[in-house]
Amino acid sequence: MKGKLLGMVGWIVALGLGVAVLGLAIFVGFALLSENDVEETRQAELTETESAAEQESKKTEEEASIEEEVQEVNAEKILSESAYMDTLHQMTHQKIYADQKWGAVEITEERMELMLNIAEESNFTHRDFYIETLTSWQNDNFSNAVEVHNYIWEQQNGTIGRATRMLTDEEQQQYIEKYFE
């Protein structure tokens, strides 16, 4: 009988130790998972912060690239139709909204006159389009700027930066102050 009692006590102790070990394992497992969750959350927050910083940096880089591409225009630089299109396209950026823009050429009376004269004296494929556009602009009618931008954008096989609307007067003023003053 004493042997049976010792055997039962042994089994109870072994069972108790087994439960304790299992409980400890579960506790450690949850603690590690919880630590991993905390670490993952911290990593996600860092990633979001880095992503926001990267986006801000990218935006600053884009602004810098536009500023680098602010151009002075003269007739010698726009002898080809491709260069002419680029210049006219960059002029539209002052009037239109697009997610991305590359280059900025200020719209001035002198520049419109120069561009119109070049178009009139050219044999460009889209000569009539340019003349119609610039004549409208000289009459202070820029309502075609989105269409002009997107027409040239399509001719140049654009994939990013389609114009979606005209800039408001305030947005135009901010653009001018940022890139031309």
Considering the chains and any ligands shown, give keywords for the structure.
transmembrane, DUF6241, 181 residues, transmembrane helix, membrane, mainly alpha, two-stranded antiparallel sheet, 4% strand, 70% helix, rod-shaped, 2 strands, single chain
Secondary-structure element series: HHEHHHEH
Strand content: under 5%
Instruction: Output the structural class.
Output: mainly alpha
| Oligomerization state | single chain
Proportion of residues in helical segments: 55-70%
Overall pLDDT = 77
Number of strands: 2
Question: What spatial form do the alpha-carbon principal axes imply?
Answer: rod-shaped
Please give the largest β-sheet: 2 strands, antiparallel
What does the radius of gyration come to? Answer: 34 Å
Amino- and carboxy-terminal Cα gap: 104 Å
Strand arrangement across the biggest beta sheet: 1-2
Number of helices: 6
Pfam family, one: DUF6241
Keywords: Membrane, Transmembrane, Transmembrane helix
Provide structural commentary.
The protein is mainly alpha-helical. The protein has 2 domains: 1-66; 69-180, no CATH class. It is 70% helix and 4% strand. The protein has helices at residues 2-68, 81-92, 109-120, 127-138, 145-155, 169-180, and strands at 96-98, 163-166. Strands 1-2 form a two-stranded antiparallel sheet. It is rod-shaped and about 120 Å long. It starts with a helix and ends with a helix. Mean pLDDT is 77; it is low at 57-70.
